[in-house]
Amino acid sequence: MIRFTPNQEGILWLHEFGHNKGLGHRTNVNAVMNGTIGVTRLRVNTTECTAFRSFANAAIPFAPAPYHAADAHSPDPWTILASFQTDRSQDDPPMDIKEFVRQTFIEGVPYLEAVKYSSQVVPVLQEMLRDRKEEPHWPNIVVVLGMIGDGRAVSEMIAFIERDRAKISGTHYRAKTAAIMSLGYLINRNGGRTSLDYLKAGLNPQIWSTRVGANLAPYQKTASERNDDLAKYAILGLALSGHPEAASALRSLQLPTRKPAEKKFRERVSDLVKEALKEHEQVASRGLADYYRSK
Q: Can you give the residue range of the structural domain that contains 281?
């Protein structure tokens, strides 16, 4: 657990308690159960009020803590990047793209909302990714770029992953890991060869030293620790791609090897690879939209 912004932490707790009570998201901009968080998100309707007040008479099932924008580490990588909100009409026009990516999404960028944006917003997002003042929003920006699926974003995303080769902030590092995973969206949307090859090569932890240099997050002590972490995000990106070659690459991590370093890494990621293959199968068979509907 980490602390959230003091004047919004209570809203965050109530929102998550609402999910434990079976409540979904609402689009009302001032609702506690809105998919984004802000100081005005204070309203509850009659149904929500009843659910909240029934606490004493109901057992609350355990649910993994969701990822939110303040987390340094995610307890569930499959919900880092996206959520699937079903309470907005498909016909609702999207908000301004800058306003959209500057929101704090409690459970990840809503997939259906992001894919409403056309390729016309890609240059705007690319410019924001180059703007240091937008650093707090970089994680959302790379996710939305991936979801839109425009091939022009590939080189920008890879350049973002590999730039700034010294110690960086936690938010900056989280944006880089989100960018690695989001290459999986680009593969899924446009079958990009460059992104696929980049993630496949990224399954080798040692390659990340070449790619990102001394680029450590505040909580990382060694490049080796960092390299393993980035390779794990490559695994997750391949899972989200749903691409047949991605599955083959993931299965290669289950093969025996005589190289000690490779063997240790494969042992460490064994459970993650198994889960990634399951998620890959779901994405490949159902598509991303239906995949996130079930999350």
A: 75-293
